[in-house]
Amino acid sequence: MQGFGIFGSAIVALIVLAAFKNAIIADVTAVDYCWRIVLGVGAVPGLAALYFRLTIPETPRYTMDVEKDVNKATTDITSYLQKDDASGEGEDAGNHVEVPKASWSDFVSYFGKWNNGKVLLGTAMSWFALDIAFYGIGLNNGIILSAIGYADTHEPDLGERAYNSLKNMAVGNIIITIMGTIPGYWVTVAFVDSWGRKPIQLMGFAVLTVLFIVMGAAFTPLKEHSIPAFIVLFTLLQGF
C-alpha cells in the first residue's frame, strides 16, 4: 500500500497547487501554504490508523507473552477463528505463566555465533544500503525530475514559473508511481508465494545494482541527450 500512499501524496499536491494557482502567480511566497497543507493532510490517514490501532483487540501472542494471560489469549484466538464475539474475558483471574525475559547476554550469546550473526549482519547491511538508495532517490522524485530538467520552465514571471515547475513535479511523480512503483509492489504481491521471498529479494537487489550503475555512469549524457530514456530507467528503478 506504500505505492498508493506515494500516489495519493502526488494527487494531493496537484490539487493543492491547483487551488493556490492564482495566489502563487500573484505572490510566490504562497507556495509556503501549499507544502504545509500537503504535509498536514498526510496526518489524516495516520490519525485514522492510530484510532483503529488503539481500539482493536490485542493479538493472542501479545496477551500470552506480555500480559501472560493464557485463558484470555485462548479466548481471543477462538473468537478470531470463529469470527464470533466470544465473551468470557475477565470472568476469572486467568491462568498466568511466567515467561523468561530476554537479556543482552542472550542476544550476544545467540548472535555471537557466526551462523546466526551472519544472517543478522547480511540482512541489516543489505537493507541499509537499499534504504540509502530508496529514501535518497525513490522518495525524492521531484528533486530528480528537477535535476534532469523535466520540471524546468522558462516563464519570465517568477510566480508562474514556480507554479508550473511544482505542477510538473507532481505530474511526474504521478506518472512514475503509476508506471513503476505501484506495479512493482503488486507484481511482488502476486508472485511472492510462487517465486519465493528470497529469489524476489535477490532479483530486486541485482537489477537495482545494474540500474544504479548505468544511471550513475551515464547521468550527464542521459540528462543532456535523452531525458525520456532516463525516465524509463528511473521508472524501472521504482518498479524493482
From TrEMBL:
The lineage of its organism: Eukaryota, Fungi, Fungi incertae sedis, Mucoromycota, Glomeromycotina. Its main location: membrane. The chain crosses the membrane at residues 6-26, 33-54, 124-148, 169-188, 200-219. GO terms for cellular component: membrane. Keywords: Membrane, Transmembrane, Transmembrane helix. The gene is PTG. This is Phosphate transporter. It comes from the Eukaryota. It is found in: Membrane. It is a multi-pass membrane protein. Pfam families: Sugar_tr. PANTHER family: SOLUTE CARRIER FAMILY 22 MEMBER. Residues 1-240 form the Major facilitator superfamily (MFS) profile domain. GO terms for molecular function: transmembrane transporter activity.
